[in-house]
Design brief:
By secondary structure, the protein is an alpha+beta fold. It has helices spanning 18-31, 38-49, 53-57, and strands at residues 2-5, 8-11. It is globular, with a radius of gyration of 14 Å.
C-alpha cells in the first residue's frame, strides 16, 4: 500500500506475516458459499482474525 503525502510516496509496512495472510484468504475461499456474499465472508473471517475487512479484501 502506498500513501502519498505532499508529493512523497511511502510504503506501509506489512502488518501481517505471509502465513496469516494465506490463512485468511484460504478461510474466505473455503467458507464463501456459507455466506450471502464474498464481502460478508471477508467481514466475518477478518473479524475472527482481528484484522480490518478492507485489508483482507485487498
Amino acid at each position: 500500500m502506498h500513501t502519498s503525502v505532499i508529493g512523497k510516496v511511502w510504503t506501509m509496512p506489512a502488518k501481517y506475516d505471509s502465513q496469516t495472510r494465506e490463512k485468511a484468504v484460504r478461510l474466505v475461499r473455503e467458507h464463501r458459499d456459507e455466506y450471502a456474499s464474498e464481502w460478508e465472508a471477508i467481514k466475518t473471517v477478518s473479524g475472527l482474525l482481528g484484522m480490518n475487512a478492507e485489508t483482507l479484501r485487498k
